[in-house]
Amino acid sequence: MDTPKRILVACGTAIATSTVVAKGIEEILKERGIQVITRQCKASEVRSLAGDADLIVTTTPVPSDLGVPVIQTLAFLTGIGKEEVIEQIISELQK
Amino acid sequence: MSKIIAELLQPSCVLLNRTYENSEEIIQAVGAELYKAGFVKETFAQAAIEREKNLPTGLPLAGGLNAAIPHTEIEHVIKPALGLVTLAKEVNFQNMVSPSESVPVRMVFVLALEQPKAQIEMLQEIASVLQNPVLVKRLLEATTFEKAIEVLRQ
Q1: CATH code of residue B23
Q2: E strands, chain B, where?
Q3: Active-site choice (A8, A9, A10, A11)
Q4: What is the homologous superfamily of the domain A5-94 according to CATH?
Q5: pLDDT digits (tens, 9 = 90+) for B96-134
Q6: CB contact under 8 A, A15 and B98
Q7: In this predicted model, what pLDDT tens digit does every residue of B2-36 receive, in sequence order?
Q8: What's the number of domains chain B is made of?
Q9: Domain residues for B117?
Q10: pTM of the entire structure?
Q11: Which of B74, B96, B130 sits opposite A15 (nearest CB)?
């Protein structure tokens, strides 16, 4: 079995919005048979944790020079563009 | 449906159909009520205001009636609670994902979160309210606490 991909989920405080995003990603990817490990962090911690991640999903701006793909989205909170973002996440994980 | 939200909202912390000049006044008003009700420390409102400046929480929603979800570090919170403000006229918050953009907001959920990850059900319920334009509209039409709770319970 493939090693689960690691997704770093960032927001401002690592307690509110990233919780909703991490849970949302886990549930939807599980339904599609994709195992992932999510880790929540503050935007200010992204740089130091990026090295351990295959993908970063964030609701707040993070640096763009992390060497890891970054998806900035509010879709898991607002529902707007959620399908597209899920497809984008899956396609990044398959690279 | 939104059972946990309905339980966590205290009548004194639900300010409906109000008029405020800016986001700071809104957070101050709810923060003062949450403090009086014993849910947060006196430092909560100021901390949430400061956080909003650096890490804004405005969310453009599908129905065009937008929301914001101010919150702050757990050290300012005594026990989990929620405040809700609906606005008679729009107040600008900055966009969470794109802070240089203003989001005219009609609804503000102020989150008093006590532990990382512990309030997942409450947060998911809030997200599901935000994703439902019909519910948002009906919540904005509610002028009493009882009516607002009734909308959220459905």
Answers
A1: 3.40.930.10
A2: 9-18, 58-59, 66-68, 81-94, 102-112
A3: A11
A4: Response regulator (3.40.50.2300)
A5: 999 999 999 999 999 999 876 667 888 999 999 999 999
A6: no
A7: 688 988 998 999 999 999 999 999 999 999 999 99
A8: 1
A9: 3-153
A10: 0.94
A11: B74
